[in-house]
Amino acid sequence: MIAPLLDILGKVFSSSLSRNHTFMHDLQVVSQSQGAISAPMYSVKGPSMVKSQYPAASPLKHLQKDLRLALGLAESVPQSTPITAVANELYKVAKSYGLSDEDFSAVIEALKAKSHNA
Predict the structure, then answer these.
(1) pLDDT grade, residue 43 (50/70/90)?
(2) How much is the CA Rg of the chain, to the nearest whole Å?
(3) Domains of the chain: which residue ranges?
(4) pLDDT of residue 31 exceeding 60
(5) DSSP notation for the chain
(6) CATH of 2-117, one of 1.10.1040.10, 3.40.50.2300, 3.40.50.10170, 3.30.70.100
């Protein structure tokens, strides 16, 4: 269940930044923050996300598979997991953009496209 938690943290980070007009500036600020908003994932993934480069440490396709498995497990018990379901759908969109072999942080590209279409 670690993968869904990691995904949700990444999605929240990406989603909140993709809605802002000063997206890249905010991403740089947050990824360098040492305050209450700081998290190791932000400082590790943030600089690459600013450059739209996603060297695969954890390929997006593997995280999406883990999300799908977590959803299946949750359904079998039954446990509601609406945030995981939304995250899974977003990762499926990112895969449709050809980002399967990129790092899971490439999901931000799906969020960027969504915010431009909104």
Answers:
(1) confident
(2) 14
(3) 2-117
(4) no
(5) -HHHHHHHHHHHHHHHHHTSTTHHHHHHHHHT--STT--HHHHHHHHHHHTT----SSBHHHHHHHHHHHHHHHHHTT---HHHHHHHHHHHHHHHTT-TTSBGGGHHHHHHHHHHH-
(6) 1.10.1040.10
